[in-house]
Structure formats: structure tokens, C-alpha cells
Design a protein that fits this description.
The chain contains eleven helices and 20 strands. By secondary structure, it is of the alpha+beta class.
Length: about 400
Amino acid sequence: MRTQVGIVGAGPAGLVLAQLLHLHGIDSVVLEARSREYVERRIRAGVLEQGTVDLLEEMGVGDRLCREGLVHEGIELQFAGERHRIDFPSLTGGRTITVYGQQEVVKDLIAARIESGRPLLFEAEDVALSGIDTETPTVAFVHERERRELACDFVAGCDGYHGTCRESIPAGVLTEFSREYPFGWLGILAEAPPSNDELIYAYHERGFALHSMRSPTLTRLYLQCRPDEEVDEWPDERIWDELERRFELAGWTLNRGSIVEKGVTGMRSFVVEPMQFGRLFLAGDAAHIVPPTGAKGLNLAVADVRVLADALAAWYERGDDSPLARYSSEVLRRVWRAEHFSWWMTSMLHRLEGGDAFDMKLQLAQLAYVTSSPPAAASLAENYVGLERV
């Protein structure tokens, strides 16, 4: 097989890149280890920045997003028995966020890819890269029990944290930066109408809680817990009782319903530098992970491949390789800004391991400042809806 760009991974990063390249008239082949059914049902992030929504619409994959996405103009921070609203439009010049599940974004992108007629191969396993430091890289893989080899000009590693692409870069090239957090999130998806019109970030002495949603009939809720806790330790009744404690507010009621999904996710920060080697370019979770508190993971992946697509277009259309040479340094500015914001939100809202009354007072003071100072609130808001420039 021969193509211009080999894309490993059919998550948001790989599929957005494929669509952008298609619009530039650049051929690509997308390889995905999982089945289409698995990829389309995988529950992940659900908050889209303004820039992500705008790009999806520009790409021609935003019709269903515009119909079904829930536009939010703020979030609420709850602490000390009160809720405080951060109004996004007034603080960011009119920018908002949209709640629309990552799996829905992926479904729309897969439909667009199939409509384009360009290759998208599911269950492409045992991927192995070679020649990435030459002008003729190849990607070997097994598909339908047959070993195949894809020759290409460039390889985009969009295969996630546990993927093959990053591991294909020789030892000593990459520098890793990481932080493991001493807590995780117990997340549930419940068949219940959302109990609030907007997201609620709750600081509580028992631990952090988040109220989110996926649709007018599906609520997404999270509880801070140990990263090694077993889901079996949390029967449904215990989950609902704990959520009610952490969201407790006079005159407000938490809607209960049937829990259709639950799981515990550990939290970490991770970045590799540089995000490129030879003809291999990393994007999304293959190069960086953020704790979910700042709602940045999917949006960072999309921002990465937007830069990469433009750089590849410059190379094919004008023979200009300077944007490709700058890819890593350009996207890492946004990555580290998002890492800081996600760390800051996480540190401000979670009970800290070994924390004492002094730590709690510091967190409460920070929350009070953010919700009472317009400049502090604006800083949170502009980072949350997505910075236009970094």
C-alpha cells in the first residue's frame, strides 16, 4: 500500500487530521487497532471548547453537533455551602463551551471519513513502524489475518498513551515529564435528567465532585476517590448517597436514576518533548495527558492536528518544510498552558493526600478569590473555553 500520510489511531486526533488532510486534497490511510463498534461506544470527554466546535463546523462535520450539542455559557463552583457562577460570555468576549460526547464526535468523523472514500481500516493490529528517520517511512500491520505494509511520506502517531508510535522513537530522543495524582475519579453515567443546567464543580471536605451531562436524559457524575478503589466497593446506593452529601445545597435536589456505566480512572499529567522525530509526528494522548478537571484532553488533541494539518499542507502545496520543523515547539506552548490550568483546577478542588486544615483554608481562599475577583474569574473562563492564542 502507498499513501501520503499514514495515520495510526482513529480517535479524535487521527480522524480530525484525516478530514483536514482530505479537505487539502492530501491522501491518507487511517489504521485503528479496535473495532468500529468499540471506538464509537467508548465513553470519554464531553466538553468542547469554542475553537473545537468552530473547527468541526468548518470541516463539515458539525451538523449533528449543532442540533444535539448543549451550549453552556458558564460553570458553577460550589464550596462552603454556596454556589458561584462563572459567566463565560461576559468574561471572554462571547465565547462558550458545548457539551457533546467524544463518542458522538468520533461517530460524525467516521461517517465523514467513509463518505470521503479514503481508507479507514479497523482492527489493524500488530502495528510496527520503520524508517521514520528517513524519507520513506513504513507502517507494517496485520489486517484480516494478512500482514501488510504501508509506505508513506509521513506518519502521524495518534494512537494514545499506550500506543506503538511513541515507543518507536529511539531511546534518548524524548524527555518525559509526568506527575501521578494520589486520587482518581469514580465516574458514572446515569439515566436521569441533569439536575442543573450547567456543570457544577464541588469542593467538599469529603472530596471533590462534578456534575456534568451528556444529553437532556443522561447525567455524567464523578466522585473523588482512591485511584486503586474497586468499583465493587461502590454499589449504586452508596454512590448516590455520597453524591448527595457532596452536592448538598438548601433547596436543590439531585436527580437519581439507573446507573448504566461506572468506572474508576486514575489521574496523571504527562508530556513528552519533542513531539516529533524524523517523519513521525505525535499528537493527542500519544504525547500528552492532562487530568480531566480542566476538560482539555480532546481539545488539545484537536489543536495538535490542526497545526499538523496546516504544516503538512504547506509541505505538499509549497514545498515549505519550516512549519513541520516548528510543529513540536508550536503545539507544546498550548500543551503546557493546558497542563498548568488542569493542574491548577485539580489542586484547587480536590482534597489533598495528607492535607490538613491549613491546606483546606488555602483552597477555600483561592476559590473565594476566583469567584469574587473579575480578573481571576476571567482567567479561569478564558482557559476553560479555550485560548484563541497562546
